[in-house]
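To: structure subgroup
Subject: Chain for Friday's discussion

All,

I'm putting the inputs and outputs inline so they're searchable in the archive.
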Amino acid sequence: MKKPMICLVSPFPPPLGGMAIQAGKLVNCLEKEGIGVIPVRTNIIWPRGAEWISKIPFIRTIVNSLVFFKYLVTAVRQCDVVYFLSGFFNFFFWITLPAIIIIKILGKKVILNARGGGAEAFFMRWKKIVGPVIRLADLITTPSAFLQDIFKKQLGITPVVVPNIADFGQFKFKKRTFLKPHLIITRSLEDIYNVECAILAFKIVNDQYPESTLAVVGDGTLRKNLESLTQSLGLNPSVTFYGRVSHDKIQDLYEKNDIFINTSNVDNLPGTILEAFASGLPVVSTNAGGIPYMVDHGRTGLLVEKNDHKGLAQNVLQLLKEQDLSDLLTRNAWTECQNYSWDSVKDKILPILNQYG
């Protein structure tokens, strides 16, 4: 059977981001299966001398969109099917909506892979406008049952779940026979990830375990505010802000720490939790969005309500006192994350690409 030529549309690194990382993994995995892939980045790399444009918000968006559409048209004409990784809100209106129309005008099939924790709010406000365009897609996939449920509820569409890919070649399971109070959070420093909650929770842990540490991995607009909060709480010696760390080096930080925390207010299926699963880190997280679909409280991790720093801290303290609980969670989490291996994911995505290509 002739293998299809795929046009894979997505943000690609740089910069790093969940969608961009998944797109890179998908290209590599598909090419290893002998499938031709034409990557089309939705986030252009600004050439030297033109970086000033990227600092002007509205102009930046228009230029980025025009360059993207130019490359999209060229790539679509060479492919059999378009696999389109899309977010919501501005990304959908500036990139996805016009791109789907262009792809259909060019007579090609498009599979929309929708992702993002803000889907329900987006559809509640805009479904009358975006619904008809979404229905132009030949198939919709999502990385989680959480998003699948939102599509069914808001649009009456049942997408196919194609999970994210966890890179077990990069992330190695480490059994921790004695859990230390060394915590790590790896999220962008923006409002929706509520890293302030993580720092407040760590203050409670640090009061009981003065030797405890917190690694904050990621960057964003709130970094200075979070550094000031850390200083005001007297945590400077114990909290390290690593900034943005390249994806191929993040494993070193997972190995150096013992508990993974996540404090999202909005989320879908965060790849960082899968990385923690694969690295043998017990996970303590808020229950935002699709996280309860991947973290089963008391079986593969521990969950608290959003913005509950006291509950988060108590769960961390419980792990430090109950080694058996940590062992149970990490064993089950390792088993759970096998569902996100390429061997598992390819059984779902390859038949789709062959059918529509």
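Points worth raising on Friday:
The mean pLDDT is 94.
Residues 5-165+342-356 form a domain with the Rossmann fold fold (CATH 3.40.50.2000).

D.
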